[in-house]
Amino acid sequence: MKYTYYGQSCFLLEAEGKKFLFDPFISPNTLAKNIDISSIEADYILVSHGHGDHVADLVTIAKQTNALVIAMPEVTHWAETQGVTNLHPMNYGPHKFEFGKLRMVWAAHSSSMPDGSYGGNPAGFVLETGGKTIYFAGDTSLTLEMKLLADLYNLDYAVLPIGGNYTMDVDDALISTKYFECNKVIGVHYNTFPVIEIDTKEAIAKFERENKLLLLPAIGETIEL
Description:
Elements: E1 2-5, E2 11-15, E3 18-22, E4 44-46, H1 52-55, H2 58-65, E5 68-71, H3 73-81, E6 87-89, E7 93-97, E8 100-106, E9 123-129, E10 132-136, H4 147-152, E11 157-161, H5 170-180, E12 184-188, H6 200-209, E13 213-215, E14 222-224
Protein name: UPF0173 metal-dependent hydrolase SAMN04488522_10791
Pfam families: Lactamase_B_3
Domain Metallo-beta-lactamase: 7-189
């Protein structure tokens, strides 16, 4: 499995010949100015919630790729009003797809669309594909619901927000790994704006002191999972 980071909470997972793009926010992000969204390929686009820093490029990329957009019904409805036609609305719960299994899980946050319309509930995802199980928390604070994941899965990696203010910070993310029992973390949702800037070296060191791994790939970098 390959992981490519596009900044903020946007990343691409590649497994079993399928490409999964999460929370497409690239073109408005000055830190991702070298990413050409017209070159991005996707079979599926998974959207955790409706905020602009998670859906800014959703319509453009969905139309250029014809990827299946998977999100809360309110988000898929908004995308449909923008001319997106390949949609799969979900809510909290599991569903089997051709690539494997996907579960939408609780996230403690808020959600509205860029036009101010209701965005439904925020969510995270647990993706089972390519022999691996990946948890993407979406935008969330630390929540006890994360403990349920340890009963349901043996997670290989967790993709967690670490910037604080709007979501968990590094310390909260570290606590969350004990809830769902996963020691390999990829950090997202940090450094895009001043209020979520962090000391990345300190963050990595905090995880190391607990014998856990925090990966912080550069924007545009691809790593093997």
